Amino acid sequence: MVTAAWTGVDPEWSREIDVPSTSGADAPGTVRRWHLLDNGAQLARRGLTPAGTLLCVHGNPTWSYLWRTLLAAGSDPAHPWRVVAVDQLDMGFSERTGTFRRLADRINDLGDLTAALGLDGPVVTVGHDWGGVISLGWALAHPRQLAGVGLTNTAVHQPAGTNIPPALRLALHPAVHRWGTTTSDTFLRVTHSLAHPPLAADVRSAFMAPYRGTGRRAGVGNFVADIPADPSHPSFPALSRVAEGLRGLKVPALMLWGPRDPIFSDRYLKDLIGRLPDAKVHRFEGAGHLVAEDRNIAAPVFEWLAGHRRDKDNGPVDGPAPEPPTPDPGTGLPPLWAPLTELAAGPAGGDTAVAEMAPDGSVARSLSWQELERSIAALAAGLKEAGVGPGSRVSLMVPPGVDLTVVLYACLRLGAVVVVADAGLGTRGLSRAVKGATPDFLIGIDRALAAAAALGWSGRRISVRDLPAGRRRVLAVETSLAALARRGAGLSPEPASRVPDADPDADAPAAVLFTSGSTGPAKGVLYTHRQLAAMRDTVAATLGIRPGARLVAGFAPFALLGPALGAVSVTPAMDVTVPRTLTARALGDAAAAIDATVIFASPAALRNVLVTRGGLSGAGLEALGRVELLLSAGAPVPESLLAEVQRMVPLASLHTPYGMTEALPVTDISLEQIRSAAADAAAGTVAGAGNGVCVGLPVHGARVAVIPLASDGSAPGDQPVTAAGVTGEILVSAPHVKEAYDRLWLTQRESVRTAGWHRTGDVGHFDAAGRLWVEGRLAHVVTAPGAVVTPVGAEQAIERLDGVGLAAVIGVGPAGTQAVAAVVETVPPARRAGPAAPQLAGRVRAAAREAGVSVSAVLVVPSQPTDIRHNAKIDRTRLSRWASAVLAGGRPGTP
């Protein structure tokens, strides 16, 4: 029995039970004493009837203490569940048997225990580490009782061609094994060190408690020795039976994962998803091997249980998602590439379709519509022969241009899922995104392949160009796009015949596109083929971009969408992942090359174009003068910036669509409409006009609403409103809204908790004319005493001051009592960061006051910390931490 008061454990849960063995490592009838943490008696004493039983199985070298938060949650009268957390034999406070127990033995042991407990259904197993395999073995042997399976970091199969993790190889080494696992407590201490953040001293002590002394640790060593490292191991057949048995498991499954696990990495999660494809999966970024310690897993587990209980009572309810209020686009929606195919077959087939520019202003490469169609078909045939098919995840690390266009559409036609995470996320963010997506194939330029080799990204590697044999070996590259295209072209006279006869299912996954990561770790956004096609049609209908348009794409998403719109597309000479590298000369040269009618560039790109406009060539200046439409998005675009750009493109209609990776676009507004909205705000003639960036009216097929903010800055309701002047979280419903967040089940549920709507995380309001005004991010709302302050309106007012560039309004201090601070980037840049000079501080306070915000402190920085992709989205969370330290008397440093 547990006699000490371990943190988080109710002593009433601790019990022991004698269990007769039926088979396995012990002779039949041998009685073994088990220790459990079990809240069943407590529930009975309180008169609570549990909805079922959670059977929780720890791994090595933990014990039932790992599941204390599930025990506490299951004891809540609001959702009572019996939770039985076992200490496996030779582990925790259960009996030390002196017998080596293998995987099959432990599965049998668990069955003996549940029989002794009289455990009947419904039972949901929960397992961690090697306890995951054991719990799954029990689940497969007890289908009548089984109602579901839950897993945290574990594995059931070693992927072909890979070694077991280095930490386990070391622990198995004969020179290390006994000393590291049994003679000393090293294995325990190393395991405990994997917690993020580190375990508190009392928690660490609790985990060590059952294993004090060499005699108490034999099970720890035996558990490690029983790892089936290869098919010759005695436990390999048992592991294989579990692994293959999962494919027939039809009960609900939940996987909660810590990606920072050096043992059970994302490659094991990928394998489990392949065996349990309908499982709900959530990866907790920053969490590791001890995910149950790193994050609150009790809340999602019981939310999942409640959802499936509703399923049983009322039909499927995996998150509120009734029929959306927008019209169904229909099953006959042409696939994304339909306009491209039609143009290739028509009279315009010989015209330029896609091009990319060289730094000297010449066209580096181009393809006609017919050449593009043939190139896509040939590459698709080659990729198909190489193993790319429906559902294959293909990470594309190729700069926008001809190569990326060809490989993107080839993959989509095959039904593969393209994974797009650009270098704008930075090395760390990009690596996190790629590892989380676990691609089957990684196609990239040399630099991306070198990163893949150095950082251990998964996937079979394909280079863009043919590489020398030595370089291929170093980068573990199998082949190249060029070789696959040659192979595909030679498979038959018509390479298209090697591509699937039917288009992929409209509701099949098509792409995982990563967010910018400007408000936390970048999230993968999953789109189906139907949603991508709906995005194409929304952009075409809203902005009037039709086949025959000629597009300069200085923004990566539009470089890829251009061919789907039937638009001639050219990529200017720039690093598209760093928008501010676009120069006026490069923009003008690209526009002249195709006689452009449309330009798309981010605000940061346009700022640099204006700075460098002196370098425009005569031909470039003339070409810009013929542009009919200029689009800019990715961050708020000041009217003053648009006004300067208008002088460069005098005939163009300037538009700033508002949207996000999850829904592009949501609303649209022109420069003329921006000025009209500003006039309405200044005159006060339209209720609700003002305070934020006016982003206009919903785009074709979209509906927009808000959920009003509460006094604590949250948006807790579920009733959408469109009344003028009500500030709240912005919602959108449209056929082109994302399918889901990839492997982020909890994030997805939160985003759709208002039935039929996507909750954007932005805050704003409508004016009486129905226009939407964006006031900032929900996460950046400042909760001052007696007031909720949204940042954008005051920031705009401050940015209109002479000598001020970008401004950020942030909160400092505890929520509910935050002081409002303004951090400004001065022009010219300040030499060092710190408190603003009194004169500047006074001007900033006065400007903010006119916008209705009282600023307590003003600080300056040489430059604002912005996201890499847009070079414009300020990292307000980082600024808030920095400002808090400065105002508390710390050294300013650099935010």
TrEMBL record:
It comes from the Bacteria. Residues 362-741 form the AMP-dependent synthetase/ligase domain. It holds the Pfam family AMP-binding. InterPro entries: AB_hydrolase_1, AB_hydrolase_fold, AMP-binding_CS, AMP-dep_synth/lig_dom, ANL_N_sf, ATP-dep_AMP-bd_enzyme. Keywords: Ligase. Residues 319-328 have a biased composition (Pro residues). One of its GO terms (molecular function) is ligase activity. Residues 309-337 are annotated as: Disordered. Residues 53-294 form the AB hydrolase-1 domain. The keyword Ribosomal protein does not apply. This is Acyl-CoA synthetase (AMP-forming)/AMP-acid ligase II. It comes from Arthrobacter oryzae.
